[in-house]
Design goal:
Elements lengths: L1 H8 L8 H7 L10 H30 L8 H53 L3 H6 L2 H43 L2 H48 L1 H6 L3 H53 L5 H42 L23 E9 L7 E10 L4 E6 L5 H8 L7 E6 L2 E2 L5 H5 L2 E4 L10 H6 L7 H10 L3 H5 L18 H15 L3 E5 L7 H15 L3 E5 L11 E6 L2 E6 L1 H5 L5 H12 L1
Parallel strand pairs: 3-8, 3-9, 6-7, 7-8
Antiparallel strand pairs: 1-2, 1-4, 4-5, 9-10
């Protein structure tokens, strides 16, 4: 909960301007059929404000009865009871219109948020990979969760409260003048609002200091957590004194912050007692003088006092409500930034509804040049050229940073080259519909991500409408069937968050089954066996060998022993092709990089 509140506090506040309001009005496009409910909600807001203004006027009558205490008991009781019943009716009406306001605005808000969440997520999943290389996933998740939650609160609570409190505050000031006189009302208008504003601003400063204090306390907690979690390292390196020193330093700062915070709070309470209560008693003193001189009736005195409380409360609450709306405007900007981004041209129709033209799988990279959008000064690929016939296996070899994974990503059209051409079956890759093309490709990465759910759900990701028989057959071809059937729940076994319930080899085979079910023309294997033990590697490699049959395969190789039978091996270094050929051809070059890498791995093994 504290984490969520902190996230809200850190949201940017947008200044009130025509531009910011213009952007926020886009939210009303999501109203749809709820427009009449929104209008009804506005009527309820006006109703709560009207009752809120009339209630203190009616309650103020009670003070007028103080001058009638000598009248007949029955008549006096009847008069007081009548006012009491009137107040009770007002409370019932206020309860009903308040419920109506909250209910209608809740429906309106949820309808708006449904559309906003859907559009935001739809846009995110259709964004190109270059977008995700520039934006952190945690930040994007925050926009979908925290930002939209802030917008929800603004619509459900803050906007309605600003309208209501403004009507009560301004209307109350007018009624103060009307029921008393300017001589009385001027003291309230001149003294109370400025003191309230100062108190609010000073209170905000204290909250800011309190946040800084909490951050320091949080910092000390991190030191404790890290020290105890890594206690083995602390003791092994005899750094107990170092950790004690770090903790002592931050607790000293906490002490200083705490004392200063205490002084500021004390000053704030002193200000409230002296100024606010002093002003109230001063106004009360002036009014008693007017009552004594018969310039003000006890009834109007009561109305003034009640109206004063309501007006002060409304004006005092406005800054906080406006600050929340400012945060909501900032959140709206951040959400619409995503919605307004240019996405990939993706056909959202299900893949099986597409009229696919099956590609054979001839691939050709011609003079490819590439730099990542986030690193425009660093050239990743420099004039890279190679080709593969349909059904061939192409292995990409090279040290880290040589451009292997970038080429694999380019094959899937996650990125487009800055120069050169990527051809499929002799046609430019951009001549194909993106969804149609990717639907005929599959990737088995080094670090397999399984989605929350069952093993069956994850295999079906390759073909959502596949039959149970197809799922079983895919699992068998991936060497996954035996381990799946060993689980009590078999294919309905939950894999856990990111597949944590399965071993690395098991996750790989589920990923292979997923690829088998998709039946791609082009297959990309990104170091799919590099992090596995020998037995898992054997089972996975067997499954991969079966999967590659009849498909064009691009294999990023970590262990060179797995690519000896590749039709072509492309050796990369610093973004350039330095060698190309079969395993036998490359091994004949004694000065070649491939032979050096092969010998090095042999010596290490």
């Amino acid at each position: 909960m504290a984490k969520k509140e902190k996230a809200k506090d850190e949201l940017p506040k947008v200044k009130f301007s025509r531009e910011s309001f213009k952007k926020s009005f886009r939210l009303f496009k999501y109203l749809g059929k709820s427009k009449w409910l929104f209008s009804l909600g506005m009527v309820f807001i006006a109703g709560t404000a009207a009752v809120g203004l009339y209630f203190p006027v009616a309650a103020g009558k009670m003070f007028g009865y103080l001058g009638n205490t000598g009248m007949n008991t029955t008549a006096f009781s009847s008069m007081v009871s009548g006012t009491g019943i009137e107040l009770l009716i007002l409370l019932v009406i206020q309860g009903l219109v308040s419920f109506g306001r909250v209910y209608t605005f809740s429906i309106v808000t949820e309808n708006i948020l449904k559309g906003l969440r859907t559009d935001t997520f739809n846009k995110l999943v259709q964004m190109p990979m270059s977008f995700f290389s520039k934006n952190q996933v945690a930040d994007l998740s925050s926009r979908v969760a925290t930002d939209i939650n802030v917008i929800s609160e603004a619509f459900t609570i803050n906007i309605a409260e600003v309208i209501r409190q403004t009507i009560v505050g301004v209307g109350g000031l007018v009624l103060l003048v009307y029921f008393t006189s300017w001589d009385v009302a001027k003291w309230f208008i001149v003294i109370i609002p400025p003191i309230t504003v100062v108190a609010i601003l000073y209170g905000r400063k204290i909250r800011g200091y309190s946040k800084a204090l909490q951050d320091k306390i949080s910092e000390s907690g991190i030191i404790v957590s890290e020290a105890l979690t890594g206690i083995t390292s602390v003791k092994a390196f005899t750094n107990e004194q170092l950790e004690i020193g770090k903790y002592d330093k931050v607790t000293t700062e906490i002490r200083k912050f705490g004392i200063k915070y205490g002084v500021m709070r004390g000053a704030f309470f002193a200000f409230i007692i002296m100024c606010v209560f002093g002003a109230i008693f001063f106004i009360l003193y002036k009014m008693l003088l007017l009552i004594n001189s018969h310039e003000l009736s006890t009834e109007n005195f009561g109305k003034f006092m009640m109206l004063s409380l309501f007006v002060a409360g409304s004006l005092g609450g406005l800054p906080e409500q406006l600050a929340s709306i400012q945060r909501a405007l900032g959140a709206t900007d951040r959400v619409f930034e995503i919605i307004d981004e240019k996405n990939e041209e993706i056909n959202l129709a299900h893949r099986n509804n597409l009229n696919l033209n099956r590609v054979k799988g001839d691939l050709e990279f011609k003079h490819i040049q590439f730099t990542y959008p986030t690193r425009p000064d660093y050239v990743v690929l420099k004039d890279v050229s190679f080709s593969a016939k349909a059904g061939q296996t192409i292995a990409l070899v090279g040290s880290s940073g040589s451009g292997k994974s970038t080429l694999a990503a380019m094959a899937l059209r996650f990125y487009e080259p800055n120069g050169g051409e990527y051809l499929i079956d002799g046609k430019k890759s951009t001549d194909y519909e993106l969804t149609e093309l990717r639907d005929q490709m599959a990737i088995v990465p080094q670090d397999v991500l399984l989605f929350g759910g069952t093993i069956k759900d994850n295999i079906l990701y390759g073909k959502p409408n596949a039959t149970d028989a197809e799922v079983v057959e895919a699992a068998k071809q991936a060497n996954a069937y035996d381990f799946i059937m060993s689980f009590p729940d078999k294919f309905e076994t939950l894999v856990g968050d990111r597949g944590i319930q399965l071993s690395g080899g098991q996750r790989q085979r589920v990923a292979i089954a997923r690829a088998v079910l998709k039946n791609p023309s082009i297959l990309i294997l990104d170091e799919a066996t590099s992090s596995l033990d020998s037995e898992s590697e054997r089972l996975v490699q067997e499954a991969l060998d079966k999967l590659m049959v009849g498909r064009t395969s691009i294999v990023i190789a970590h262990r060179l022993s797995t690519i000896r039978n590749a039709d072509k091996i492309v050796v990369l270094q610093k973004g350039e092709v330095v060698e190309m050929g079969t395993h036998q051809e490359l091994m004949t070059s004694t000065a070649g990089l491939y032979q050096k890498l092969s010998k090095l791995q042999y010596e290490l093994n």
